[in-house]
Amino acid sequence: MSTVTKSVDDSLYPIAVLIDDLRNENVQLRLLSIKKLSTIAIALGEERTRSELIPFLTETIYDEDEVLLALADQLGQFTSLVGGPEFAMYLIPPLESLATVEEAVVRDKAVESLCKVATEHNDQDLEIHFVPTLQRLASGDWFTSRTSACGLFSICYQRVSQTLKAKLRDNFHTLCNDETPMVRRAAVSKLGEFAEVVEIEYLRSEFITNLIQLAQDDQDSVRLLAIDACARIANILPQEDVEFLVLPTLRQCPRDSSWRVRYMMAENLVNLQKAVGPKITQIDLIPALHHLLKDSEAEVRAAAASKVMDFCLNLDKIDQVHVIMASIIPYIRELVTDTNPHVKSTIASVLTGLGSIIGSYNTVEHLLPLFLKQLKDDCPEVRLNIISNLSRINDVIGIQLLSQSLLPAIMELAEDSKWRVRLAIIEYMPSIASQLGQEFFEQKLQGICIGWLDDQVYAIREAATLNMKKLVEQFGAQWAERAVIPMILALSRNKNYLHRMTCLFCLNILAEICGTDITTKLFLPTVQLLASDPVSNVRFNVAKTLQTISPILDSSVIESQVRPILDSLNDDTDVDVKDFASTAISAIALDMELDVFRATVPPVLGKSLEEAIIAKLATAPPTTDTNNNDL
Question: Has keyword Membrane (predicted)?
Answer without folding.
Answer: no
